[in-house]
Amino acid sequence: MLLTKAEMRRAMLGGALSLAGIAVFVGLAVFALLLSSGVSSILAAVLEPYILRVLRFTLLQALLSTLLSIAFAIPVAQALARQQHFPGRMWIIRLMAVPMGLPVLIGALGLIGIWGRQGFMNALLLKLGMAEPISIYGLSGILLAHIFFNMPLACRLMLAALERVPAEYWLMASGLGMRPGSIFRFIEWPVLRSVIPGIAGLIFMLCATSFTLVLTLGGGPAATTVEVAIYQSLRFDFDPGRAVVLSLLQIVLTSVILGALSFLPAPGDEGMTAGKVLRRPDGGLPGARLADGGVLLLAALFLGLPLMSVLLAGLRSDLMKLLREPIFWQSAATSLAISFSAAILALLIAMTLVSARRAVLLRRSGATGAGAFFAAMGGASSLVLLAPPIVLATGWFLALRSFGDVSAVAPLLIVAINALMSLPFVMRVLEPAFIVHKRRTQKLAASLGVTGWVQLRLIDMPALFKPVLTAFSFAMALSLGDLGAVALFGSDSFVTLPWLVYSRMGSYRTNDADGLALILGMVCLLLTIAGTMGPARREVAVHG
Fold first, then answer.
1. Nearest one of 331, 417, 62 to 213, comparing CA atoms
2. What is the percent of the chain with per-residue pLDDT over 90, rounded to a whole number?
């Protein structure tokens, strides 16, 4: 055994405490929801026309957003896969990563700048004789925004699948003289068909739990999702009963979606390959190059114009005036403190869970319940998917309101909720790196008797620095740009940068909102970039 009994005991205890803490935090929020409304009243409220309408719209917009994101991602992924030497191809792929690291509120502002009433696209279409043909608010705006954020994600996943196709397939296609239609039918579509269900399920989950985009672009009661209706029930109507029903409905909805995702088939294996690199026979055709170039140009404009709009609008605002306002520095300090604390908490929880899962794997006794403990620690990081941030915030709001001013503990609640929100990503980054590193170094460290702080300083920290930095920076950026958890607790005395941007938008101070959005977006993007730029460090490559 490569862990001493004391190390094993500490690892298992740390994992058990983290697991218990997550379960208590989520469980108390859900219990408060159940306690605030009886079962009979819940069943009666579910049948209200308003709640049924909200549920119907939530599912409709998620379904349409998913279908459109997948439909637009397929030709873009095909074009990127076919045109390996297209000028700027790598920059287009990098551009597709930007919406994933950008706060949702900033993306919404960029889309308003292009597709809004005074936006570039409407101005252009007005010159062509069309009277304000595009509305950014309501269902059309929600769909447009979801495509902006989810089409790049779908495209990158599809591109990765297409790039795994063995080169021998293309060699055979070239030898048989296959046309583009036949290549799509017999090679590309079987590959895409194996990954599309999982991608579609992920996008549907993201759209069904969308909050900030719908809050910003929803356009009224006719375009409201369950999460936004929860916020409205507490923030404006102060109807806790309805908020409870909607929160429980959201938990049921996410449970059904997660259950359905678990039954989706895993992507297929395209077969063995000798690792050859061949140019695809369909990529060099003049018609294909022209069509693919047009698709990639449209995709780059669709993603790049809103980002450029945020940049230009932010630069046109009076940034110096914003920087002199005390409320800016107050909100910036609050946001940085919350995001830093949430990222640290997410890292600590993730490391205890990862260490405990490794300890379970190393146990040779096969104790009863070890497998369940291992699975529970893995599933704990995904509990926030079952109870989204606005649901957790609602549960704790209802639980604490009878004890006094909830805003007094709002920062602590938001730190905990944001930590849980980023925990799935942090776990997925840290666990593989931690397991591989320990497998490579554990026998050498044990033979040399290196343990504790010395092992952490000399062996673990140099090797795990980059994945820890990646996880920390992304968790901090995610928390920094979050509006979901703070929307319920935001007030004049408790302001974060996203809440300040949203407040300035609501009071029609759009120039201020544009400047603040630029600052917030740049900070989040710099954090995301910093997570991928850690110093190159050589791992101790010792195999036992």
1. 62
2. 20
